[in-house]
Prior knowledge:
It is built from nine helices and four strands, in the order H-E-E-H-H-H-H-E-E-H-H-H-H. The chain is mostly helical. It has one domain (30-265). Strand 3 and strand 4 form a beta hairpin. Residues 115-117, 156, 160, 209-211, 243 line the site of FE2/S2 (inorganic) cluster (FES). FE2/S2 (inorganic) cluster is lined by residues 115-117, 156, 160, 209-211, 243.
Amino acid sequence: MSTLEDLEPTPVTLGGVRGGPAGRTLRRDRWWVSPLVTVGVLTSFVAYTVWAMLQNANYYVGASMHRDLISPLYSPCIVGSCVPGSHGTFLVLHWWMITPALFALSVPGGFRMTCYYYRKAYYRGFWRSPPACAVADGHGKYSGESRFPLVLQNVHRYFWILAFVWNVILTIDAVMAFRMPGDGGIGVSVGTLVLCVNAVLLWLYSASCHACRHLCGGHVDQFSKAPLRHRVWKLLTPLNARHMQFAWASLIFVALTDLYVRLVASGVFHDPKLF
Ligand code: FES
């Protein structure tokens, strides 16, 4: 009887020849829907974000409107060009940038770019490498992520740590959104709820991250000897199974939150107070 040790390992050749006529496959289902949706949503999100970044205006609703709402695309707003009132309570750096969103988006941008799930999605959608399981690769060669520049995707775990700090800041923004300067002091408006939902989705996205689960429960030979890590790992595992859903929901909601703050700040409508 052969054992696992007797079996020859399947040779894996990086850089081998792949591919074939574009889209060649025996699949009969609509495999192309998923990469198409990925391209559509990511392209729309990037286009909206770049547009919103370059506006460099209408990202903060302040005391003049009896609110304290800041767009997540511009938070933390700690560069010299931030509008008065939008500064974080932390460090105010005397940097001047074309737009404060450049700094604010550096970490979330890197975090999402290097996310394991998004990598799969955009490698399939944009590079067709391959577009789907059992569909011919769009390229003749495959070198994985073993070479520059894709080897840099390994920095994801460090981006997770930075994103954690960003989540704390955006959660403080959500708490600050309960402030209603000159309008009763504290209350709940639609804007408050929008910023709160945004913060919760960002936490769910970060907590369901594969790197987070590994950080909390990885490198443990025996869970019985690390009961706390085991508990955290058990808590994160069901979230991890829904990482894709949290990735899309949080991405879309960030853009919607910016849009909401933008419309209120530009005077299109007033942020309704609920109580
Ligand atoms: S794997 Fe997606 S955020 Fe870490």
